[in-house]
Amino acid sequence: MTTRGRKNSSITIVDVAREAGVSYSTVSRVVNDNSHVRPETRARVLNAMLRLGYVVNQQARSLRGGRSQVIGVLVPDVGNTYIGAIIQGIDSELAARQYHLMLYTTHRRKTKESAYVTTITRGMADGLLLLLPTNVEAYIESLQKLQFPHVLVDYQHVENAFTSTVQSTNWQGAYDATRYLIELGHRRIGYIVGQREMQCSLDRLAGYRAALADAGLPIDPELIYPGDFYRPQGYMAANHFLSLPNPPTAIFAANDLSAFGVMDAVLNSGRRIPEDISVIGFDDILEAGHVHPGLTTVRQPLEEMGRVAAQLLLKRLDNPDLPGERVEMATELIVRDSCAPAREGVGIPPEVSRRY
Amino acid sequence: MTTRGRKNSSITIVDVAREAGVSYSTVSRVVNDNSHVRPETRARVLNAMLRLGYVVNQQARSLRGGRSQVIGVLVPDVGNTYIGAIIQGIDSELAARQYHLMLYTTHRRKTKESAYVTTITRGMADGLLLLLPTNVEAYIESLQKLQFPHVLVDYQHVENAFTSTVQSTNWQGAYDATRYLIELGHRRIGYIVGQREMQCSLDRLAGYRAALADAGLPIDPELIYPGDFYRPQGYMAANHFLSLPNPPTAIFAANDLSAFGVMDAVLNSGRRIPEDISVIGFDDILEAGHVHPGLTTVRQPLEEMGRVAAQLLLKRLDNPDLPGERVEMATELIVRDSCAPAREGVGIPPEVSRRY
DNA sequence: GTGAAAGCGCTAACAA
DNA sequence: TTGTTAGCGCTTTCAC
Any CB–CB contact under 8 A between B59 and chain A? Predict the structure, then answer.
């Protein structure tokens, strides 16, 4: 008879009932403050609960068909402040509403993403928040068929009326950033694309193209380089741009992390930011204001996006018949010190320009 | 008759039993591959499970007295890569062992910390991981009394044999960093203390002092400034140091985040790093290698610490009678570009030194 | 307003 | 080897 079950010594509804001298269904009523319980009875029960230190057993409650009060959150990883900020927003909303947050890290592995979704929809959670999902097709249908409440953050092209989405104005943000560079006199602007599987990458790329087109500037394929939203790839992309015979005078990275990689490469090459090369990012993660020079970037209201996503989900839980919503949040250009007016020939590295 | 219970349409053990033509306890046996089930029977059951897409209901299993397969993780916040790295390590270990991760963010609010611990120990989770806990006294005793498996990360002074702890060699790391600066010729080394409530802050401070003492250097209280592990406070501390009549030639911050604040302040003051002022940090978070100049710092194996903490906890779950362990992981000095040999008068700002 | 009783999905004796 | 049975703690009819 070892003390194996940690849940022994646990006060149940029955103990409270005995202590209060009522039936345990009455205790249940008090706990859920449902129907009308006589005030004195309620008080007696409440008192007993307090005395005994009763805490409701979620497992049992959830098994019985109620809510588990758990929300699953699926994220690619937690090692960067982008995701961290969104989680922070989600967490603050969930905590305020007494929900628990179950975290699942997919590490961008598609199989994991699907597998987690299956697990989560089966009793583990009441709803699901998917951050930067990449494999949506694989499970979105079953989510919809099961009518399992879910919200996608940073993903939009879902036709079904049941799915809610939250994202920022990616196209507009990229358009604004590009136009800003154009207004600074830049004519050759390198663009580092984000992860192709993500809709936001495509939208931002489109915004970049549109701004160039609107300004009557050519779209040079040489100036569009594939990226993956991570720093090393930004580094490589910048090196590619800098090695071009006619390098760009400004580089626009699809997110801040990539932009940091760009800054590394530019600085390493002996060029200065922004005097020689302007750099602009996207996201405005915490570090953007901390690097030197401060990174000019397009701000996404990350924490707010997380909060809104959680609100959407919780609203849906309370009212399952609500249709899916699509919330788009405004981006904002944050001007710091990484961009300057274009000058002739600044894209050409010092040692080369000296030769002429 | 609305379709409210999302868990309807859910395949249970009974469905599988019917499909396979066996009793449902046999199915249970197969699921838990317990006792000896005849291979053909097992195959038939497995087949039925697959056909029906059966997934075990954790709530029910856990209610029955088994494991919930959930580990609670209590963190101060998720907005920085320090915590992110540790969580990453925890997550990889838990995922590999089929455990789920319930995340609780305390935002350094003591009341929240205690409240969460109470909730978690009641049925929500099988074990608890506490990262950078600050309010340990308030609940450690109940954790121990309940024999609730838990591991503290970055906290050590717990006498009870039941509590396991993981941390790095904080004292040694700080000692090494300080000695490194001394060997570079620095005689006046400013130190920015970490959050006072955390043992690691005290240990690091002690390491700093010890290194100075061992080198026969005086400990100037003016050069020890209170911090809180966050960037703004590092900024303020550096400004304080720089405004001293006889400023330090090197600044050692109790963590990287503070060190970044120091770098901001130093750079803003027109001084150069490392030529004018050397800066050294602690942690080696991701960004340390990314800032310019690269931050010399004391590396903590963060992801590894998370992994080990999870391992310790899981081991304990499998064998509840094991005593608590205390794991200390080695720090390592990572030399980058933010420190240089001391030169005379370098701590004095340019405009001042020019006057002499 | 309150109590009795059924059962959520599962595991683990105990039988057969 | 397999089936029967009794709950885990809770919510929720349905009586009273």
Answer: yes
Give me the number of domains chain A comprises.
Answer: 3
CB-CB under 8 Å, A6 with B149: yes
Contact of A274 with A249, CB cutoff 8 Å: no
pLDDT per position as a tens digit, A121-142: 877 789 999 999 988 888 898 8
Calpha distance A251→B341 (Å, rounded): 36
- Is B270 in the same domain as B159? no
Same domain flag for B341 and B217: yes
**Longest CA–CA separation in chain A, Å:** 97
Q: Is the pLDDT of residue B229 over 90?
A: yes
Establish if B2 touches chain A: CB-CB under 8 angstroms: yes
- Looking at the fold, whether A158 and A51 belong to one and the same domain comes out as no
Q: End of a domain among B56, B80, B98? A: B56
Q: A205 and A132, same structural domain? A: no
* Chain B stretch 140-169, residues whose beta carbon is closer than 8 A to a beta carbon of chain A: 146-149
B267, two tokens: 């750079």
Q: What is the CATH number of the domain that holds B36?
A: 1.10.260.40
A216 and A320 part of one domain: no
**Model pLDDT, residue B3:** 32
Residue percentage of chain B with pLDDT more than 90: 66
- pLDDT of B350 above 60: no
B114 and B231 share a domain? Answer: no
- The tens digit of pLDDT for each residue in B97-117 reads 989 999 999 988 888 888 888
Q: Which of A51, A60, A56, A55 is nearest to A19 (CA)?
A: A51
Residues A309 and A296 occupy one common structural domain? no
| A62 Cβ under 8 Å from any chain B Cβ | yes
Is B274 part of any domain?
yes
Helix or strand (DSSP H, E) at B253: strand B250-253
Q: Do A199 and A292 have their domain in common?
A: yes
- What whole-number distance in Å separates Cα of residue B16 and Cα of residue B44? 10
Does the structure show a pLDDT above 80 at B139?
A: yes
Q: What is the mean pLDDT of each run of 10 residues along chain A (356 residues)?
A: 41 91 91 83 92 87 84 93 96 93 90 85 86 89 87 84 94 98 97 93 97 97 96 96 97 97 94 97 94 95 98 91 93 98 61 39
pTM score, whole prediction: 0.89
B79·A65 Cβ contact <8 A: no
Q: Is residue A64 part of a domain?
A: no
- Domain containing B85 equals 70-169+302-330
| Contact in structure between A156 and A204 (CB atoms under 8 Å) | no
Nearest to B59 among A62, A121, A264 (CB): A62
Q: Do B57 and A6 touch (CB under 8 A)?
A: no
Indicate the angle between helix axes B256-268 and B231-242, nearest 10 degrees.
Answer: 50
